[in-house]
Design brief:
Blueprint (H helix, E strand, L loop, with lengths): L4 E5 L5 H10 L3 E5 L2 H4 L4 E4 L4 H10 L3 H9 L4 E4 L1 H5 L1 E5 L11 E6 L10 E7 L3 E7 L4 E5 L4 E6 L2 E7 L2 E4 L10 H13 L1
Parallel strand pairs: 1-2, 1-3, 3-4, 4-12, 5-6
Antiparallel strand pairs: 6-9, 7-8, 10-11, 11-12
């Protein structure tokens, strides 16, 4: 597979920025809103946004179960911030009715680094990528991981980037920096599976 087709879950969040980053990383990028569009992609990005809203919209649009099925079947997925929360097997203190897609054997804490006014940027050393500027906006962190999960980055002693098989997740937003290396890592993961 030379140029993979990668969708961005376009229910809520920073979809446009991911479409741009994926295109810059040599993928064909397209928004995905309906279950039938899942069959047309080789991989998927779940953007940052608001994880509770995203969960409710995924249910409303009939996307929750089809997404779970594709992830369980091995489709490569990358989640940033709220996307990391959506890919967790468990959330500490989830909002009422909040669902996840699963895919990574981890427990996450929502808004762990603080509220909106406590957002920050910091250089993060990402395994396989190098130093990247991490934009943390109401960011979660990973409390604990299972044996099959690889930690790719930490910040202030907290896990902020992980990978389990074909599933990648970061607490921070690389799509907001103009540095497309993390997206490039994901595009390479999709190529390897294809």
């Amino acid at each position: 597979m030379t140029t993979p087709v990668i969708g961005v879950l376009a229910l809520q969040g920073d979809v446009r920025e991911h479409l741009i980053a994926l295109a810059a990383a040599d993928a064909v990028a397209r928004p995905v809103r309906r279950p039938e569009e899942l069959a047309e992609i080789d991989g998927l990005v779940i953007p940052g946004g608001e994880s509770t809203t995203m969960s409710k919209l995924a249910t409303l649009f009939g996307m929750l179960e089809p997404l779970r099925e594709r992830i369980a079947a091995g489709m490569p997925v990358y989640g940033t911030c709220a996307g990391l929360i959506m890919l967790a097997d468990k959330i500490i203190d989830p909002r009422s009715g909040q669902e996840t897609l699963g895919g990574i054997d981890m427990i996450v804490r929502r808004n762990a680094f603080g509220r909106q006014n406590e957002s920050f940027e910091a250089t993060v050393e990402v395994s396989g990528v190098g130093p990247v500027e991490g934009v943390f906006i109401r960011a979660p962190w990973v409390e604990s991981i299972g044996a099959q999960v690889d930690v790719l980055a930490e910040h202030d002693g907290h896990i902020v980037a992980v990978r389990q098989g074909n599933v990648l997740a970061t607490s921070f937003h690389p799509e907001l920096t103009g540095d497309h290396r993390v997206h490039g890592l994901f595009v390479d993961m999709v190529r390897t599976v294809g």
